[in-house]
Structure formats: structure tokens, C-alpha cells
Amino acid sequence: MVRKLGLLSLLALSGLSLIGFSTPAAAPAEEEGNPWWIWILVVFALVAFLAIVIWWWMRSGEEEESEIAPPTAEAAAERVLAEKPADDLKRIEGIGPKISSVLQAAGIATFAQLANTDVDRLGQILADSDPNLLRLANPATWPEQAKLAAEGQWEALEKLQGELKGGRRA
Q1: Which residues are CB-neighbours of 81 under 8 A, at least 6 positions away?
Q2: 116, 77 in Cβ contact below 8 A?
Q3: How many Å separate Cα 68 from the centre of its chain?
Q4: Displacement of CA 137 from its chain's centroid (Å)
Q5: 92-148: per-residue pLDDT in tens?
Q6: Can you state the angle between helices 97-105 and 119-129, rounded to 10 degrees?
Q7: 20 to 30 A from 158, CA-CA: which of 69, 88, 91, 98?
């Protein structure tokens, strides 16, 4: 950054010095030459050019820094969602539309991801989103149900869900 500003300052000084030495210092007023307003236009054009160069240079540095930035957790979650289609998490007993959207926002979009997530982590995700969700839902059986769903064992899942009430063991 300091190096860029130094180069720009050098460029500006050299341009201004060329303007100052382009006419003789002791030129008589009667001689024909360029009118004063032309020199104002030249200086204005140089200043505008330098402003555009500075703007372009600063903008290109910001783009390089943003391209190098490490991916965030949200970007990783979006990438996972884009790579694999999301499952309907509402098929799990105890998960409704609200909790399904909360889990997907946290990067859990498939039955396999839900099956591999710890119950404490699920509770933390719900608490971070809305503390009232933990009073409404108990994620204790979700990984077990999701494992059956991920493996395609729909009959076993239905049998397990028949034993549950609101996602909790009855």
C-alpha cells in the first residue's frame, strides 16, 4: 500500500514538473503562446487522469485481497448444499419446517449429515437460532432416525417413529 502511494506520488510530481518546465520562466507577456485557460485544462486533465489511476489501483488491490480470503463456514455450507441435493428433513419425527430451515442454514441438509451430527451439537444449533426451539423439540432421536433414512430403511424408520411421540421416546 505504501509502495503504491509512493509510486503515485512520484508520478504526480514528475507530471507537475513537466508542466512547470514546458514554457520559459521569463517569457514576455507579449509573445504568443498558449492562453492561460489551456494550461488550466491540461492540469485538470492530469489531475483527472491521476484520480482514475489511483481509483483503479486501489480497487484492484481490494479485489485481490477478497479473492485470497479463506472461505467462511457459510460459504462451505453453501458449497455442500450445491454439491448434493438436500433431503426433506421434515420426514424426521420432531423436525418441522422451521427447524429444517435452521438445520439447513447450519449446513445440515441431508440425512447423512444429520446422522453424523452429535445430539449436543444439534441442541447448540437450535439454541443459537432460537432458544425456544429447544423447549419445543428434542433432538435426541434425530441422528438415529436420520441414519435409517440415509440407509433407505424406510420400514424401520416408520416402526421407530411409531414408538415416538413428537420425536421423543414415549
Answers
A1: 104, 107, 109
A2: no
A3: 12
A4: 31
A5: 888 889 999 999 999 999 989 999 999 999 989 989 988 888 888 888 888 998 999
A6: 100
A7: 98
The helix (run of H) or strand (run of E) holding residue 132 is helix 132-136
Contacts of 117 (CB under 8 A, 6+ apart): 108, 143
Chain centre distance of CA 129: 20
Rounded distance between C-alpha atoms, residue 160 and residue 156, angstroms: 6
Q: Per this entry, what is the length of the chain? A: 170
Instruction: Please state whether the predicted TM-score (pTM) of the whole model is above 0.70.
Output: no
Q: Which amino acid is at 32?
A: E
pLDDT in tens, 19-36: 555 555 555 555 677 888
CB 140 within 8 A of CB 168: yes
Q: Give the three-state DSSP class for 88.
A: coil
3-state SS string for 92-116: CCCCCHHHHHHHHHCCCCCHHHHHC
pLDDT score, position 34: 80
139 by Cβ neighbours in 10 Å (0-12 / 13-18 / 19+) ranks as buried
pLDDT in tens, 57-83: 888 766 655 555 566 666 665 665 556
